[in-house]
Amino acid sequence: VQLQASGGGLVQAGDSLRLSCAASGRTLRTYTVGWFRQAPGKEREFVAAIRWNGNRNYADSVKGRSTISRDNAKNTVYLQMNSLKPEDTAVYYCAADSQIILSSIPNSRLWGSWGQGTQVTVSS
Predict the structure, then answer these.
(1) According to the model, what pLDDT value does residue 39 have?
(2) What pLDDT is attached to residue 115?
(3) DSSP state letters, 18-71
(4) What is the chain's mean pLDDT, rounded?
(5) What are the φ/ψ torsions at residue 102 (nearest 5 degrees)?
(6) Per-residue pLDDT tens digits for 56-106
(7) Among 37, 51, 63, 105, which one is most buried in terms of CB atoms within 10 A?
């Protein structure tokens, strides 16, 4: 499956953004899709994931401020981020995998397909 992430931008603290991860080549219906982010000088970290059955997982750093959702008709997964903070600044990547198990979701090395990333910059 090929993934295309979009929706990033430059915003102020407290603003909202909706990131999109559009898939081609395969339907995302049977995939777990996740969002990760990587700030300069830091490792890629897990943000959120939505499983094929609709179950969701969030990192503590974004829990309560973010919602991951999927539109199977559009073959797209969204990450709505609210109350953005400067520490949310990073390149955001989407990933997909049809075999990943729940305990492996936070491990970026275990995901099979990746999009190219979209930059999110939050100014204070």
Answers:
(1) 97
(2) 95
(3) EEEEEEESS-GGGSEEEEEEE-TTS--EEEEEE-TTS-EEE-TTTTTTEEEEEE
(4) 96
(5) -55, -45
(6) 999 999 999 999 999 999 999 999 999 999 999 999 999 999 999 999 999
(7) 37
- Which residue carries 């499956």 as its tokens? 1
Please tell me the distance from the alpha carbon of residue 120 to that of residue 26, in angstroms, as a whole number: 27
Which among 43, 56, 35 has a CA at the least distance from the CA of 115? 35
Using alpha carbons, list the distances in angstroms from residue 90 to 22, 67, 74.
19, 18, 26
Strands of the 2-6 sheet, one edge to the other:
2-6, 17-24, 76-81, 66-71
Hey, is 85 helix, strand or coil? Answer: coil
pLDDT in the model for residue 112: 96
